[in-house]
Amino acid sequence: MSLNKGFETLRQSKVRKIEDILQRYLPKQKGRQKLIMEAMAYSLMAGGKRLRPMLMRETYRLFDGKSEVIYPFMAAIEMIHTYSLVHDDLPAMDNDDYRRGRKTTHVVYGEDMGILAGDALLNYAFETAFRAFVTEPEESLTIGRALGVLGEKAGIYGMIGGQVIDVKETGHKLEKEALDSIYELKTSALIEASMMIGAILGGASEEAVKTVEHIAGRVGLAFQIQDDILDVTGTNETLGKPVHSDEKNEKTTYVTLLGLEEAKKKVEENSREAIRLFKKLPGENPYLEELLIQLIHRDR
Q1: CA distance 71 to 62
Q2: What is the pLDDT of residues 80-134, one digit of tens each?
Q3: 3-state DSSP call for residue 71?
Q4: What does the pLDDT read at residue 1?
Q5: Which of 149, 148, 69, 160 is nearest to 122 (CA)?
Q6: At what angle do helices 286-296 and 260-278 cross, to 10 degrees?
Q7: What's the CATH number for 5-296?
Q8: What is the mean pLDDT of the chain?
Q9: How far apart are CA 296 and CA 229, in angstroms?
Q10: Is 102 helix (H, G, I), strand (E, B) or coil?
Q11: 230 and 299 in contact (C-beta within 8 Å)?
Q12: Fewest CB within 10 angstroms: 41, 116, 136, 284, which?
């Protein structure tokens, strides 16, 4: 799918704003332990789509959110996503030397600092999210609810749970149900967290937050299936990371399980369902709707 020029210009502008927010919340590089701050910054500022903080902010706007209370949560979700990638790239996991076109954190700083940088980003993510209480102390209950979603979706009932199943089952042939459970936890959970937190802080009803969770789940599944497709059809240059890594790591994917064409159909099915549910939400955000479509059908 070719990108609309106006949409792409706007997206890049929003990415730059997000990166300004990330810089704002990064720790100062000082003290005897400053090496870990350097490794955190190297990992966090390595580029990327900034999908999760963007989805969070745009969902917040969908529900008419206007304050900076969303900023620490935007930084926190990207720190959590980044730590997962840092650990994913380690020799004990996927053993990748490149991510987003440059050397991975453990290659640059050593395996020990790679582990600690991931740990630091995870811990600092929650330290950062807690700053929302200072921004809007009168919204403590809502902020607490958002923190609960962040913790659950990032933890053993979310992303980490998915990683555990993924690691445990690598090298084994999986049925579709098992693969779906990995994708729903490993990929969809953080996308769900992003959009749910945006909705919660924006004042959405319980029913609307639930609908947002379903939308994000469909988007996450389609996003991961598209990732499977790109691992086969993409190039190292366009993706900024090694292709055919799923095959190298003996992972079952939608492509290995169902074939390329059927995998593409599943992307379409989940995409259509996500947009159908999105149109039921109150409020309007045409950019968010287009973003969901473009992310699912990306070519990198």
Answers
A1: 16
A2: 999 999 999 999 998 999 998 899 999 999 999 999 999 999 999 999 999 999 9
A3: helix
A4: 40
A5: 160
A6: 170
A7: 1.10.600.10
A8: 92
A9: 11
A10: strand
A11: yes
A12: 284
From residue 53, alpha-carbon distances to 108, 207, 208 in Å are 26, 22, 19
CA distance 198 to 132: 13
DSSP state of 241: S
- Residue whose structure tokens are 């045409």: 286
> Alpha-carbon distance 16 to 201, whole Å?
22
SS3 of 151-219: the string is HHHHCCCCHHHHHHHHHHHCCCCCCHHHHHHHHHHHHHHHHHHHHHHHHHHCCCCHHHHHHHHHHHHHH
103 vs 188: CA distance, rounded Å: 26
Which one, of 109, 132, 137, lies nearest residue 46 by Cα? 109
pLDDT of 225 reads 95
SS3 (DSSP) at 273: helix
- Report helix angle 159-169 to 140-154, nearest 10: 0
Tell me what pLDDT residue 298 has. Answer: 76
DSSP for 246-263, written as a single string: HHHTT---HHHHH-HHHH
β-pair partners for 98: 103
pLDDT greater than 80 at residue 256? yes
Q: Residue 5 pLDDT > 90, yes or no?
A: no
Mean pLDDT of 66-78: 97
Enclosing H/E stretch for 20:
helix 5-25
DSSP β-bridge partners for residue 103: 98
| Cα(42)–Cα(186) distance, integer angstroms | 23
Amino acid at 136: E
User: What is the rounded distance in angstroms from the CA atom of residue 254 to the CA atom of residue 97?
Assistant: 25
Give the whole-angstrom CA distance, residue 156 versus residue 164. Answer: 9
Distances, alpha carbon 266 to alpha carbons 98, 182, 186, 188, 274, in Å: 29, 16, 18, 15, 12
Tokens found for residue 80:
């959590």
* Rounded CA separation 296/64 (Å): 25
